[in-house]
Structure formats: C-alpha cells, structure tokens
Design a protein that fits this description.
With about 120 residues, the chain is mostly beta strands. It is about 0% helix and about 65% strand.
C-alpha cells in the first residue's frame, strides 16, 4: 500500500509505503576441520511474517521516464523456529530470528517505452 503527494511535475513526496511479507528462511551451518566437514541445514517451520515501512522524496528529471527516489524506513522480520529435513527442531530459548532496523536507499529508475 502506498500513499504519495504530488508536489509538481518533477517532485512527489512518498508519505508511506507499507509492505507485508511472508518469507521463508533457510540456514546452512557448516563446520570444517582439517579432516572432517559437518553440514547441518535448517528451514523455517511456521509461516513467518515481516513488514517494511518507508517514506521519502521522488524526483523526476525527465518525467515519466527517469526518476530518482531517496527513501528511508524501518523493516522487521521474525522466524520463531527452525527444523532439519528430518524434522528435528533446532532448540532455542526464544525466537530464532526476531530483528528489525532502519534503512536508507537511493533508487534510479529508467523507463524505456516500447511503441
């Protein structure tokens, strides 16, 4: 879901972009020594939920074909538990992944019309 406000032909303010995601998690743990290699592979057991929220400014130097977006926001992701292919559950005392953080990015978009 996205909300924007058009300032002029060349500028938009992105008030809010909201994303809800349902990702899966795969983890490969490999331990190597000079004589052996042990590999454990895990995958998430439940439906995981994540979200992202961002806001920013969009500049159109050559509208509508070229845009430059400067955005910043916050994203969050969690995975409660992991299991092996043999359905052995990885024992943890809390959520396996429970993290989020702030981000910032600049995006250049070039559109090529096919007429």
């Amino acid at each position: 879901m996205s909300f924007s406000y058009i300032i002029s032909k060349n500028f938009d303010i992105r008030i809010a972009d909201l994303y809800l995601t349902f990702p899966s998690v795969d983890l490969k743990n490999e331990i190597r020594t000079t004589s052996t290699r042990v590999t454990d592979e895990y995958e998430s057991t439940d439906s995981n939920i994540g979200f992202s929220f961002d806001t920013g400014l969009v500049f159109y130097p050559a509208p509508p074909y070229i845009s430059i977006e400067l955005i910043g926001g916050y994203s969050f992701f969690s995975a409660e538990s992991m299991q092996t292919a043999d359905f052995d559950e990885l024992i943890t005392t809390s959520d396996f992944i429970d993290s989020g953080g702030f981000f910032a990015s600049a995006v250049l978009t070039v559109g090529i019309p096919f007429e």
